[in-house]
Amino acid sequence: MSQIATSTIAIPRANAKGTMDSFFAKPGGAGPFPGIIVIHEIFGLNDNIRQICQEFAEQGYAALGVDLFSNRNRALCMMQIFYGMMFRPLDNSMLADLNSAFDSLKKMQGVEADRIGSVGFCMGGAYALQMAITAKGMKAASVFYGANPKPLDAVAQACPIMGSYPDKDFTTKAAHELEASLVTYNIPHDIKIYENTQHSFYSQQRSPFEVEASKDAWQRMLNFFEEHLHGIA
Asked: What is the pTM of this model?
């Protein structure tokens, strides 16, 4: 893969309510390239998310790491997140901002508008699942230990979903419930629970088990996106 290019760009929030300073990484060359929205954990857009964006770019994707907390009061953002997750899980301000980022990525030069997916971690994983349902035209979503959307039956409208979960976590039960619903509604999926791992295993890799789980989850994700983004006729 040729040298990648990175930049910080301003992505408009929903309803023109400000912008989000976000990290963009893409392969060298004109493209066009399939796109990935990368959604951070509660810690915000940090070096770990930037590294993931660059790793996607090395694999041939235009990756946009959205900073949901950018140019906003962090405490206010946290209140919006918890309120949205509890009371408006498929119609909330943060999700609207992410769908705005999805629309922005589709319009970027060198990005294939009809070949875009998302990946999220913890809080971001919950949003990746919400986007799988609400972002019309999204082709695939990958969730790492994120909360399920409510109502769960909404996944009947979802794009293909891949999920990676620890076996010692509050999201383990959610993984089983999500997989059952995806089977019920015949949504293409790949859900895996990793033994001897805990929450945030992908970013922290605290043990040899978590290191191997992270490697496996990354390869599964590349395979999943290869099938559902590159495999579009």
From this structure: 0.94
